[in-house]
Structure formats: C-alpha cells, structure tokens
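Structure ticket #2291
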Amino acid sequence: MKALAAVLWAVGERLDIREVEVQAPQAGEVLVRMAACGICHTDLHVMTGHVGAPLPAVLGHEGAGSVAEVGPGVGSVKPGDHVIPLWRLSCGVCEYCSDGRPALCDEGMQVRSSGCLLDGTTRFRLDGQALKHFCGVSSFSEYCVIPERGVLKIPDDLPLDRAALLGCAVVSGVGAVFNAARVRPGSSVAVFGTGGVGLNVVQGAAIAGAEKIIAVDVLQNKLDWARQFGATHTVNATTANPVEQVRALTGGKGVHYAFEVIGQPATMRQAYDCLAKRGMAVVLGVTPLTAEVSVPVMSLVFEERILTGSIYGASRPRIEIPRLIDLYRAGKLKLDELLTRTYPFRQINEAYEALERGELARGVVIF
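Resolution: structure written out below.
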C-alpha cells in the first residue's frame, strides 16, 4: 500500500515528505496506521549526525495508532486495536529481559543498528529502493510494519495524541525516577534540562514524593514549565552557577538525586558535582558516540557517589505504561499540559525547527 512518510536521506538534510510503498506484514508482524507521533530529540540527533543510524530511513519512534492488519501467527492484537509502538524491541527470554531490563536486550540493538526488521529486511520501498526502519518503529509514516513484540495494546478511549507521549518522553523520564534512581519520599532532586523528557523527570519526582525538586535550564519558558510540573525551585544557568545554586538550596549538602537530560558532558559533570554524599546522578541525555565525561575519583569513592545511565526509563514498558495511563486518568500524571502544540504531518520540519528553538515541551504531528 501507499503511505505518506518522512524520509531522511542523509545527515544534515531536512525530512523529505514522500509517498512510499509499505509492504504487507509478514509472520509475527503488525501493520499500524499511525495517528500521532511525537517530536523527539532522538530523531533530531539522527538528523544532525549526533546519533548514527542506517540511511536512508523513515524516522520516528514515539507514536500511537491503530492496527490495520496482522501477519500470520499474531495473537496479541487484532485490526482496530489501539496501540503504542515500543521502540526497544525485546526477546523476553534473555538475561536482561528476565531481570526486568528489556531495553538492554540484544535483539533491540540488532533492530536499531541494522535498520531492518527481525528477518533482516525492510517493508519500505521508494522507486524500487529499500528504505530502512528506525528503532523497529518508523512512526513518521502513515503506515508502518512493526514486530508483534514491539506493539502494546492500549485502551480505545485514550486520546491518541496523548497516548503518543507515553511511549518515549513519559516512560523515559518518569521511569528514570521510579526505576533507575528509585527516588524516595522526602528526598531532594535536581534536574538538568527541562524539555520533554526532563519535565517528566520533574513530575516523576513529584509523584514519588520528593520534598525539593530543583530544575536547571537556560531557557526561562522551560523553567516556567518545570514549575507547572512540580519543581519547587528553578535555576537559570545563564545567570548563576547551577552547582553553587543547588548546593545553596540544600544547605550546602547537595541533592540526593540529580538527573542530566541534555546530553552534554559539561552538564553531566555539573549533575555529579551537586550530589550529596551517597547521592546518585542519572544520565538520560544522548551524546555523540565519542563523548566522555570525567569525575573526581576521591568523591566517587570517599563519598560513595553513584554515576549511572538510564535508557527507556529502565522500565518494563508492558507493565509500566498501563500504570502511567492509570496515573493520567487519576489526575496525577500531566499529559495534557505536556502537549504544547500539534502540527499537520506535512509540517514536521517546522515542528523540529520549533523544537530546536526551545518552544516545545512536546510537539505532536497528526496524520
């Protein structure tokens, strides 16, 4: 079938809106008609070359839609079901899946690095040329084929533009708080970077019962959003030293938890430097492959500080996304407020320009 899609031909180019051919789903695959997809920095990192991906490809990994067709052997979903794509495919049986860390599964990395589905081929064609998938999802296509294990059924009454946000921004941010850091009630938290994922770290910390939540950014509008999502204090890093400010706000002790959601070694070091003894810094930000960060060994050892990472919120998405939906319905998780602006799909490049200008908490394009 034919579908409108956003194709990235080469690093540094704009997304090219083209009509592509989408082949039928094979055994164990699902054809999804996307309704809404999120404007995420991860796809922007691929466009700029900060993150490598096989090209040309149909990008997009955060979205929501409905099942249009299923391949042989598919039993967990049927045509008409509403679904969220899971962009870190997992096998369900390996060491990491069995230990509750499906995002670390090698199967997901194979799909991510090859740009192909599990059989080593793609379902996209344009003028006879095969186009690669992205993260096994490619939500920037009106129709996309996804492995059955890469889709999660959701309630039919959940608005799809809100549901789209759950699959990356929300589960990554809130999940990092709940799973990677395990923030305790009454603790102190600093969040470096309050864009789409960072705001979900902020609201995750608020839900977890943190007593002090300090948001750090260089844009005042993002700090204002952070207040709305539960930050108790804000620091504009263009006018003050963030490490000094965080320590001042905690009586010189530092915070129990710090989260870096920008992707810069300098801010990763700042997150580490503002920790209290036995504090934990969690890095969510994506950097170029060669980026490194150094920390002083003496404080690492003698103060027992922890520096770690978090991918996909260190979550079990099939368990935790339904719980996030319940929190949204209970009025405890902000999705409506997170959705800053919607765009028609053909304006996807304009949406990314707005993201680069810092105008979006989260934007969504609608088919």
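Closing remark: The chain is about 30% helix and 25% strand.
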